[in-house]
Each structure stands twice: as structure tokens, then as C-alpha cells.
Write a structure and sequence with these properties.
With about 240 residues, the protein is of the alpha/beta class. Helices cover about 40% and strands about 20% of the residues. A seven-stranded mixed beta sheet has the order 3-2-1-4-5-7-6. Strand 4, helix 4 and strand 5 form a beta-alpha-beta unit. The longest helix has 21 residues.
């Protein structure tokens, strides 16, 4: 049991180091996660596959589906997901390789990949394989880091091959055989904070205090701006593409 607990803690630590999320959303980025869900939900069908779900922070507040498959390639993370979602009957937990070599036995309407594609060297091939887990005309929702100008030491340390623009992520989806319906930047103010912290400041890991302050004061302003005005760039890119 001690060995399992140590492995689970190591998995949680690795996940937090890679994404800046915390298992307890109240002490992490609850407003930012709520904004992500708000952006992604309109593009989801009744059944969803989330790849690279980590410890399930996004999925924990994403409810109301007939079937929700949460997955990760890491065995420790999968075990934590099983523990976290044991009381949600619509949730299935599976180990699933994010490079696309795994396929669901029963396809879903929507595949969600949040901060996943940038970790895969052959992103076109992976996206082509991942789409095999979709029903006909099912859609893929991608949330990826934005703009190579923001690429810094943090990106290198966590294994990001690239950051995207709306044009490059759309081109990737099209090369994978998908029909792009939406590709736009999000988190406009976050781009400035990221540039200051990572590109100029050389930050290699998120500061929990600054993340909390950003989540409390900046995210609500960002949401208000992006609901009313088009933005020229952002910390992330949202892309929605449909399987033909």
C-alpha cells in the first residue's frame, strides 16, 4: 500500500509540474477551469472522450453527459481518476495513449484534448488516429498553447514540441482529415502574463500564489473582454474540427 501511495503522489506531482493544475480546484484555477468549460461545452455531444485528463481537474466540473470517458497514459493518474470519479456512473476511466494508438471500442460524439497535442511530435498522425474513436461527423475540441513567441523554458521542461496559432492548428487538423469549424485565440490577458513570466522572467514552474491571484482577478476580466470583443492573440488556441 505504501508503494502505491508513493507512486500516486509521484504521479500527482508530475502532473502538477507539467500543467500547473492542482488536484483541489479551490486552491488552483477554478475560474479559469470554469472559463475553459464554458468555451468547450457548446461543441460537445452527449458522449465525450477526454484524452490526457491527468488527475481529472477539468472533468470534475464537466457534467451532464450520457457518457464521459476520462483517460490518461500514466497508470498512477488512471488510478487516481478511478478514485475521483467512482461516484459518477456516467464516467468511464481508461488508460489511453495520447499518441493515438488506442481506440475506443464504442466511439463517442466528441473528443476533447486540453494541452495535449503540443506534447506529441507527430501531431497530425496522432490526431488522425484519435479521430477513429469518434462517430461519423463527430468532432474534436482542441485547447492548445498559443504562439511560438511565447515558447520558453517552461515549455521545454514539460515536453512541448511547439505552440500553435489558429492557422497552424487548423492546418494540422485539416492534414489529419478533419473539417475545421473554429480556430481562434483565447485568454488574451494571459498571453501578457505568460510572456512576462516565462519568456522574460524565465519561469520554469508556476508560482501557486501568482496563479491564484491571476485566477481571482484577471480571469473574470478576460472572460468579459472575450465575450464582447474579438482578440488578436492569446495564451491558448481553441480549435473545433469535425470528422467528415
Amino acid at each position: 500500500m505504501r508503494q502505491f501511495d508513493d507512486a500516486a503522489r509521484d504521479s500527482a506531482s508530475a502532473f502538477r509540474a507539467a500543467t500547473g493544475r492542482d488536484l483541489e480546484s479551490d486552491h488552483g484555477k477554478p475560474r479559469y477551469l470554469a472559463y475553459q468549460r464554458e468555451l468547450i461545452r457548446p461543441h460537445c455531444g452527449r458522449t465525450v472522450l477526454e484524452v490526457g485528463a491527468g488527475l481529472g481537474e477539468f472533468a470534475s466540473g464537466f457534467t451532464g453527459f450520457d457518457r464521459y470517458v476520462v483517460t490518461d497514459v500514466d497508470t498512477g493518474a488512471v488510478q487516481k481518476l478511478k478514485e475521483r470519479f467512482h461516484d459518477r456512473p456516467e464516467v468511464e476511466v481508461q488508460q489511453y495513449d495520447i499518441d493515438g494508438t488506442t481506440t475506443l471500442a464504442t466511439p463517442v460524439h466528441t473528443l476533447v484534448a486540453i494541452n495535449v497535442l503540443e506534447h506529441i511530435e507527430d501531431d497530425i498522425g496522432a490526431l488522425r488516429q484519435l479521430s477513429r474513436s469518434l462517430t461519423s461527423r463527430g468532432n474534436v475540441v482542441l485547447f492548445v498553447p498559443g504562439y511560438q513567441q511565447l515558447y520558453g523554458e517552461f515549455d521545454r521542461r514539460v515536453g512541448h514540441f511547439r505552440r500553435y496559432t489558429p492557422t497552424t492548428v487548423a492546418a494540422t487538423a485539416r492534414e489529419a482529415g478533419l473539417v475545421v469549424e473554429l480556430a481562434r485565440p483565447v485568454n488574451f490577458l494571459g498571453a501578457f502574463a505568460w510572456w512576462a513570466a516565462v519568456r522574460r522572467g524565465g519561469t520554469t514552474a508556476p508560482d501557486p500564489r501568482l496563479v491564484s491571484l491571476y485566477d481571482r482577478y484577471v480571469v473574470p476580466v478576460t472572460r468579459a473582454i472575450e465575450k464582447t470583443l474579438p482578440i488578436p492573440f492569446g495564451q491558448s488556441i481553441l480549435c473545433v474540427a469535425r470528422k467528415p
